[in-house]
Amino acid sequence: RTPIIIDTDPGIDDAVAIAIALFSDQLDVKLITTVAGNVGLDATTENALRLMAYYGCDVPVARGAAEPLIRDYEDATDIHGKTGMEGFDFPDPKTSLLLKEHAIDAMRRTIMESDRKVTIVPIGPLTNVALLLKVYPEVKARIGRIVLMGGSTTRGNKGVMAEFNIHSDPEAAAIVFKAGVPITMAGLNVGWEALVLPEDSAKLPAMGKVGTMAYNLFKKYRGGSFKTGLKMYDPCAVACLLAPELFEFQDTYVGVELAGSLTEGCTVVDLKGYLGRQPNASVALSVDGKGFRSWFLDAISKCC
Ligand code: BDR
Ligand code: CA
């Protein structure tokens, strides 16, 4: 099983992505680290600990960055609700799993102690991962790859061109893309095709506790999209690991726009090689939407 660390800001789609990873027999989730994103750090950390209680899992959780490296923090409560996981009554957080270490110290220790290279799966803003790579560069050689949800090959969801996770902390994202660690990027362009349609959601309540949770959270996720199809952004990153055959990838250079007057936080994905730079990421260009839907339902049915 591939050892992984999930860096997350739960988050409704985060909650589902974490469940799929935890219950996969191909992945070994060693650590969950939290970051401010969809909601503030106290809430994302509490949510991660509530998920552990609900899933009956004992993965340690470490608190990370409460704010972006440079920018002001902005939440996404309009999408995920005030708590970040609105719509379902979770048990109390399993606080015994909360480490005293900061996320980057816990990540470093987990990576250096592992006898196999560790994959990092960031599904929130990249603040923790950037800090890790800058403060402890020795981890780079021990990271298998970083498989992240963020960015877009086309348009944004936080403004015209920028995606939320990258837009939240573009300096951190720039550090990560420049780090020289292998990166797989699952952006909005695949998230928009990775839909859970109403007929799929209808099957969830019969799929055990994770399905029941997902069904209730989904009713609150992104306003009216329960009826038109829910975009499974963060599960796409996990799917890139577990079912890469569903995606088409291209090795390419990805830069992060830090200074654009209209495009701050945009991932500049140089698919045609205009910039003449070495590829730094394997970018998911497209996903088989039908295949994703059946993969997703199958994965949820196997949870717990
Ligand atoms: C990303 O932003 C968050 O709201 C989701 O959890 C996902 O990680 C999509 O842009
Ligand atoms: Ca997220």
TrEMBL record:
Q: Per its UniProt record, what CDD domains does this chain match?
A: nuc_hydro_IU_UC_XIUA
InterPro entries for this protein: I/U_nuclsd_hydro_CS (IPR015910), Inosine/uridine_hydrolase_dom (IPR001910), IUNH (IPR023186), Ribo_hydro-like (IPR036452)
Q: Tell me the ranges covered by the Inosine/uridine-preferring nucleoside hydrolase domain, including all copies.
A: 4-293
Q: Which regions form coiled coils?
A: none
EC number(s) given by UniProt: 3.2.2.-
Task: Look up keyword S-adenosyl-L-methionine and say if it applies.
Answer: no
> Which UniProt key words apply to this protein?
Glycosidase, Hydrolase
Protein name as it appears in the record: Ribonucleoside hydrolase RihC
> What species was this sequence derived from?
Bifidobacterium favimelis
Lineage start: Bacteria, Bacillati, Actinomycetota, Actinomycetes, Bifidobacteriales
Q: Which gene encodes it?
A: rihC
